[in-house]
Write a structure and sequence with these properties.
mainly alpha, Cytochrome p450-Terp, domain 2, 2 domains, three-stranded antiparallel β-sheet, 16 helices, 3 strands, globular, disordered N terminus
Length: about 400
Amino acid sequence: MAATAAPAPAPSSSAPGADFAKGLEGIIAGETAICCIEQDKLIYRGYDIHDLAEHATFEEVAFLLLVGHKPGKEELSSFKREIVAERALPTHVVQFLRDSVGAIRAGHAVPMDLLRTAVSMLGHADAESQDNSPGANLRKSKRLLARIATIIGHMQNFIDGRDIVQPDAGLDHAANLLWMMTGRKPSPEEARIIDVSLTLYAEHDFNASTFTSRVIAGTLSDMHGAVTGGIAALKGPLHGGANEEAMEMLKEIGSLDNVDRFMADAFATKRKIMGFGHRVYKNGDHRAGILHALGRAYAQRKGPDAMKWFDIGERVQKIMLEQKKIWPNVDFPCGMTYFVMGIPVPQYTPIFVAARIAGWAAHVMEQHANNRLIRPLSKYTGPALRTWNG
């Protein structure tokens, strides 16, 4: 009888030849029914992003992501009423924001830090915070969707030294966000631009912050904890913070005449040009053109002082494409668009959170519903085995 071969050892962190990709690039880490990213399209639960940006409101998109299907008329009305009813913040969260803006002024913190802590604090006041059941998770998702916008608005009021602008029940989600931040009722065009930007930012597959949220949820931790982790991941300039960095770069360039010199210096010193390139998209980000067109049209109507930033940005974009063959991602037009709308640059990434909470929460619910602890291996690069007393 032939000898039976010994079973191969199970893969381990030290197994030679084990699959490895730095940054998990190209690795399929799980399954999802929420979002599909391809080179020529971005799909939320079966709907293309161009279709959603043109025909759906952000509330409809949030319902689609959280509940799983396109809302009917009555479902949408009920969903919007629920969101409006949940906008108010607990008193202790408001007091925290009031007490903490000094850290922003002193340069010890940025708005994303306060937002991260405030969301964690919301869990302390939520009677369902420890309940991971589908119903409780959906209700918490709606509360977070409503209250993150209010946190951003109140925080900006305190930064500006103004009285709190209370939510307006008569305004849709995007318009209300602008209203609370500025105390000025947005025009229909402004409300539409922010609404579309929230839709574009709402969901994007297993990106760094969403994957972070899923890893946390995979331990059977709670919704607020998973979202808090997502916010921490989104803060970084290589993820959500890129829209802020892109606009700061354009401000540094300052004028159209300075673009070519700035770009030449950047290439010579290997400076990273923020708002360009994408880990998945190699031929351009589908979302970027949508937001660029809306922002450019708005800037044209505002006049030369606003168009200046799109002129600079389009020259940067042309040079990047011609010399590096790298396309802008959605963060690049976002920076310009929000800037000409008068939105403070440090709030760009918090607004990203106000959108991505819909995607994060959907992924947390999906992870909880079909969970397996996420625990990848690593490739060990340390010293060979040795003895302590050798």
